[in-house]
Design a protein that fits this description.
The structure is a homodimer of 234-residue chains. The radius of gyration of chain A is 17 Å and the shape is globular. In chain A, helix 7 crosses helix 8. In chain A, 40% of the residues lie in helices and 10% in strands.
Amino acid sequence: MESNKLDDWKQTAPLAICLVSGGLDSCVCAAIAGQTCRLAFLHVNYGQRTEARELRAFRDIADHLEVTKRLVADISYLKAIGGSALTDHEIAVPRNSVGTRDVPVTYVPFRNSHLLAIAVSWGEVLGARYIFIGATETDNSGYPDCRGSYFSAFNRLIREGTRPATHLEIVTPLLMSTKGEVVRRGADLGAPLHLTWSCYEKDRLACGRCDSCLLRLRGFASAGLNDPIPYEER
Amino acid sequence: MESNKLDDWKQTAPLAICLVSGGLDSCVCAAIAGQTCRLAFLHVNYGQRTEARELRAFRDIADHLEVTKRLVADISYLKAIGGSALTDHEIAVPRNSVGTRDVPVTYVPFRNSHLLAIAVSWGEVLGARYIFIGATETDNSGYPDCRGSYFSAFNRLIREGTRPATHLEIVTPLLMSTKGEVVRRGADLGAPLHLTWSCYEKDRLACGRCDSCLLRLRGFASAGLNDPIPYEER
């Protein structure tokens, strides 16, 4: 594409707010959004254990994709509310519980609603058209706020609760993807997977044992690729 | 009621999260909730102009009603997002715009969704049954997130996005009330109206001129009562 055509495209493309945690799914989701949209990146700190490491991953990914419109929001009240192993240090982060059918103890009550509400407020002010979120129903089964029916209900809420001129819509391109498919898609798009962080427990070398590391490692294995981030010796 | 019966009642009554801004409507709404429920009070700072004064009103009302379960959450990112006269000091607070049909410039984009999401997360952890919010469609017409259809959509979102064992429901007892009816109901219930604060502009003496003051004053006039809070000389 010639440079003036690229500029034309950039000017007329719709704006997408991307929720970017710094993990694998959100990185690939942002790369998908970037194929058709101008990007604005939103990151939310909610007092989770690896908050600082995730924020670094967010910034690294935004730098890599040259996204300058960024918002980092702090909702540390979720830590005060507690009720999850991710925000309450008295609840242990589970290992090897992937595949059980209960709502996992890492479920942060109604968390995605906070992230999406921030995205909607910001998107309404910026005049954005889409909100991209890298939620997956397949591997995160058990999180009630990661299901398609939940996102449909949120889209209805947006229609009811914003200005008539606002036309914001949540898009979940990875909802039905397995982790292996997410890795494969990210690799195909040239997404900066080496800059992502998934571990729930550690922040220098990934632990390789928490549920999030296990899912990630299985995803790379299933895609037939090596995970480029460093892990603790096992 | 004898004291042991009162204790029985307190133990078995459902728990209600009350959104208490410190204004008239939320005070009366909390008094209504207190007739049938145990209470937990939630206050949210969002970088609005009169944040400190509203927080004082929240504490005064909670003290008066002897509510010990309290959460004060800070969502100052709403100020960073801007887009409203309540959070952006470069947009003037309107005067005498009550009754116009557009979305008012005091509309904080999607604000109630943030407040309700916090209430749901807290309510899910506490095992609450209800969320009381003192929204009124009548006087706040024009705020898209104050309509019955919005709250219905949010109740559906709660059902989709929380644990199967959670049964939280938003209750809007004042939705169809005029400000005069709210004042009258509050007076009948003995709600501490003298501790509330409504002014969007000032924090020591209410200005009496902003839309919020005008609605409040009309409400007291229509109820045939004197507003017990102090106003600037006019």
